[in-house]
Design a protein that fits this description.
By secondary structure, this protein is an alpha+beta fold. It has twelve helices and 19 strands.
């Protein structure tokens, strides 16, 4: 008897547990199906409303209805709704044709949502047939990777009516009850739409290809340094580039003024020297001629250096404007009839091909000379260094190819003789950062050895750079040293050592 009583008691317990489990599961399942907006299921409130696809109505009208729907949701303040400018970063192209509205599959929508970094995506279609409007759409949870709500509007006969119904939809999407007194605001866009369409039909419009944000930013900074950065909401950086060019331009104007004074003094003094017969006065005029000649060359060299620095900063500004500009996101939908395998696609661009290449503008001046140049005065000159990602690792030392072009100039004390020209060097560049602890990884240490061709001979170049990279963008500043060992036709074997600075950019 006790045995059967125990079985009966255990059976009641098991049945009770099963019944409670059933109730709990039903509650959970119903919550998933009906009350999906429960806080426990929500992981964020960022929402993107994709442009509705249009059938039977024009794109401008589609755009107006979509934007009003987007703004209605935003006004309810349930979701953080992306603006159209941000949402439309996602563009789908299929053999050159825009098919944005055709991305209807779950896989395609989820991929778009991930690219936009949102929690929810709303997509749909607006159809006009026989003067009646139909709207179909779905709302997807990107975090849950599933459709959470569907909506539709049928048999709406007027444009104002479809606007009103879509406003009601915004309440449904937001999980709110539709007010009884809901209405629509007057819209100048809709009222003037018919007039616009008629005007457009009369005019043969030529549609230019869409310019990406990166190219647009590049174009702005090409015209005005820093303008692309301002366009990309990096105002301080843009003003920095603009201010740097203003300073360089001001220095160039000052140097040009000094150059004109020196050159004018040289011409006048030399003219007097040519017509003077008195030996005593000729001796007095000669030092002035040499001084004016030296000053003229000094100011001209300074102007040449400013031109190189100004052009380098301008080029860096252009490249930086392209890099920091917001990306246009492209999605590959594969076959036109199948959007289930949608995936992001990184297009190979010129910048991808040039990734790893760098450019540095050099300002150098000889500080030590060989005996054959002891009677010559050195001048400050400029150069250009091109770094490449082409190379090999030897242990922890990366050895790459570099190419450098630089000028050199020496003038005798009497200004009657000059040694000047340019050198072109192909060198091996050794990254010794991991071998030299000084400065850690924040300061890059490079050494290189190369073969050079000079205007007056051939030789070798040994050099080194201490490079500091700015973390916010690929701009660098460096201290440089160069040792030139040259076999010249005019002076024989000689050498000189230069020190300088450089500003560089490396394409990430």
């Amino acid at each position: 008897m006790y045995y059967f009583s125990k079985i009966y008691t255990d059976l009641r317990i098991y049945l009770t547990i099963a019944f409670l489990s059933f109730i709990v599961n039903e509650h959970v399942f119903s919550a998933e199906k009906i009350d999906w907006k429960d806080k426990a299921l929500k992981t964020g409130n960022r929402l993107a409303v994709l442009d509705f696809s249009a059938k039977g109505i024009s794109d401008p009208m589609r755009d107006i209805l979509t934007e009003q729907f987007r703004q209605n949701i935003k006004k309810l303040k349930i979701y953080e709704v992306l603006d159209a400018s941000m949402t439309n970063q996602v563009e789908i192209f299929y053999p050159g044709e825009k098919i944005y509205g055709e991305c209807k599959s779950k896989g395609c929508i989820l991929e778009l949502g991930r690219l936009l970094k949102v929690n929810y995506v709303v997509a749909g279609t607006i159809i006009e047939k026989d003067k009646e409007y139909f709207v179909n759409g779905k709302m997807y949870s990107i975090d849950l990777e599933q459709e959470v709500q569907g909506f539709s509007i049928e048999n709406v006969s007027e444009i104002d009516s479809i606007r009103l119904e879509m406003k009601k939809l915004s309440y449904n999407v937001s999980g709110l009850e539709v007010p009884d007194t809901i209405s629509i605001e007057a819209s100048s866009e809709v009222l003037s739409y018919v007039t616009k369409v008629k005007e457009q039909e009369k005019m043969p419009w030529i549609r230019l290809p869409k310019i990406s944000k990166k190219v647009r930013s590049l174009m702005y900074s090409t015209v005005v340094p820093g303008a692309g950065q301002v366009y990309s909401k990096r105002a301080y950086t843009g003003l920095g580039f603009f201010g740097a060019e203003i300073i360089i331009g001001s220095l160039a104007l000052l140097a040009h003024s000094n150059y004109q004074k020196s050159w004018g003094g040289f011409q006048e003094t030399y003219k007097s020297y040519q017509i003077e017969d008195d030996p005593g006065k000729l001796i007095q005029l000669r030092p002035d001629i040499v001084r004016y000649a030296n000053d003229t060359k000094k100011h001209n060299d300074f102007l040449r250096g400013l031109r190189i620095v100004g052009a380098s900063i301008w080029s860096i500004n252009m490249l930086h404007a392209y890099i920091v500009a917001p990306d246009d996101i492209f999605v590959n939908t594969g076959n036109l009839g199948n959007f289930s395998d949608a995936e992001s696609k990184s297009k190979l661009t010129t910048w991808d091909i040039l990734s790893g290449f760098g450019l540095r503008g050099l300002i150098i001046r000889p500080v030590f000379k060989g005996s054959s140049l002891s009677s010559y005065s050195p001048y400050t000159d400029a150069g250009l260094l091109i770094t490449t990602p082409i190379g090999l690792y030897f242990g922890s030392v990366f050895t790459s190819l570099t190419y450098e072009i630089s000028n050199y100039s020496f003038t005798s004390s009497g200004f009657e003789d000059q040694v000047e020209g340019s050198s072109q060097t192909t060198a091996l560049n050794f990254d010794l950062t991991n071998k030299i602890s000084f400065g850690g990884n924040s300061i890059k240490k490079y050494a290189f050895l190369g073969r050079s061709n000079y205007s007056d001979g051939t030789g070798y170049l040994i050099g080194g750079d201490l490079v500091y990279n700015i973390s916010t963008f690929p701009l660098s500043f460096a201290l440089s040293s160069r040792a030139n060992m040259v076999n010249t036709q005019s002076l024989g074997s000689t050498m000189w050592v230069s020190l300088g600075v450089n500003v560089g950019i490396k394409i990430p």
